[in-house]
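re the bet — no i am not wrong, look at it urself. input seq straight from the record:
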Amino acid sequence: MSGSFSGRVGALGAAAAALLSRAGRALPLPAAGATGADLEELLLAMPAERSLSMAQTAALVERITMEADLRDALVAGDLVLRYHPIVDLQAGHTIAFEALCRWRHWSKGLLGPAQFMPLAEESGLIVQIGGWVLEEGPRRLAQWRARLADADTVDVTVNLSAVELRDPGLVDRAARALDSSDLPAERLVVEVTEAAAYAEPLEPAVRNLSALGDLGIGLAIDDVGAPRRDSRSGAPAFDSWLWHRPVRLVKIDRGVTALLGKAVDEDGHGAASVLHAGRLLTAALSEAGDRDIPLVAKGIETTEQLARLVQLGCPAGQGFLFARPMDPADAEAYLRRALQTFPLRAH
């Protein structure tokens, strides 16, 4: 185990001590600059009544290593953004790009959010990472606006976790990002899931969203239809405080979109889930339509899904059928082609 880890130097000791403290185990603090091999030796030398199994030790060392690597990545600039277009399904033009964070890990390659965002949230690094995304996304869109004619109404969206949504420095970071990029506030949209919004405590989340709105920043309700603790069916809470805020976009969970294109066999297997997805989407379309909010279906991958969404009257979509998340150069080229093919109207 130590072969893949030895030589990796960083602030591992403090992280190990903190993790084991949470688990009720005391760990002697290694010397500054301890390597993975040093940490492993300490773990294996713990008294038998407090020791970890080999599997637990390996998992802990991996967890500590990844956290140390992530801290290093923030300093080294190894986080990157990929931009995923949101497309008007009726007119064909691009209305926004979602800024998605990726990590160029020194040994594991390009990592997606599922591979490091849970760690970022648990370690508290999510606030620093989110602050960088909040700065870089608007900066990049401002560059495109300066170089491309008719891109003035394209938005950039960034995701906020439950932790970021409650952070007292969120609004100041957003204001600084707009000031430094010179991007109009109305072109920045923050995406918040219902699960993140309804987590406790509520008051700081409500306060921050109100202050972001006062700056002119838009709000997107994300992953509508995804199961939540308070709703296993994923039914949207249309009467909640979140839905009564000014909302720029409503984004349907990719799981709902996937069910729209699902085949039902001759015995009717799968019919209930397909019917549920259709009803949920119809309800969301009706609610969004009544409030004059564009609805975006995520995860569109097939022409069958697209046809069904158009048939239901869904105004916008996002998914691999249109493009995969792109690096800044490819995203700018994509936008240039889209503007030439489908000129934007002011909105």
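see?? The chain has a mean pLDDT of 83. told u. also The chain is about 45% helix and 15% strand. so pay up
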